[in-house]
Amino acid sequence: MINRTLNKLIRYWSRDESLSILLALLIVLIFIISPFSYLGFVSSVALTVLFTLILITGVFSVSNNRNFRWPAVIFALLCFVVRCNSLLFFNVYLTRLDYFLSILFFILLSLIIIKRIFFEGDITIHRIQGSIAVYLLIGLIFTYCYLLTFSLVPDSFNLPPIKTNRESMLGAFVYFSFVTLTTTGFGDITPNHQISQSLVLMEALTGQLFPAILIARLVSMEISTRYNKDNQK
């Protein structure tokens, strides 16, 4: 019974529709939960629940590949355990480890999704939504890069007066990361160190090149596929 249910989940998450669900989870995480990070423990629980769902998504995304299945499960469990312990015990080293593992996880998940997007088969609206999910994941990758940098070098950013607890810092850097990714740049948070300045430049360039190259290419491929199908009728 358990194996049958697990196989059904694996089959579902290997379909293109799962990319749309991942995009929905990321939208909730970034635009609904993160702005309320000042609520403290309540927002931490909500963020952890969503983070866990995204972890599960990542595990099921590679479940068809036996070479990556168990390493993915072990890595997801490690991320989950470190995240929970860092929230419970408020240890700076656990927090930094959590930031580092989050960076690795979001990078790996982005690569997995990109591979699935260009997997054999037609380019669908779900794959285009998957590319948008990767764009949002890039914002989260840099969010945790900024958090890790700020934890190691406290004067690496000029910040407005905010609470310095973990939740408030996460909300502030989610905001800063996506402002940088879209090159909006309001100037209320600024990099103040060579490392943070380099990260900001890297994210700004990525934010310009990714939609222009990958997403635009996918949209044109989807239109071409639909046009060819219409001509065959």
Please describe what this structure looks like.
Keywords: Membrane, Transmembrane, Transmembrane helix. The radius of gyration is 19 Å and the shape is globular. It contains eight helices and two strands; from the N terminus they run H-H-H-H-H-H-E-H-E-H. It has one domain. 79% of the residues lie in helices and 2% in strands. The longest helix has 39 residues.
Q: Secondary-structure map with pairings?
A:
Elements: H1 2-13, H2 17-33, H3 41-61, H4 66-89, H5 92-117, H6 125-152, E1 157-158, H7 166-181, E2 190-191, H8 194-232
Antiparallel strand pairs: 1-2
What is the total number of structural domains? 1
Main structural class: mainly alpha
Question: What percent of the residues sit in helical stretches (DSSP H or I)?
Answer: over 70%
What is the 3D form?
A: globular
Low-confidence segments, given as residue ranges, are: none
Average pLDDT for all residues: 81
* Strand element count: 2
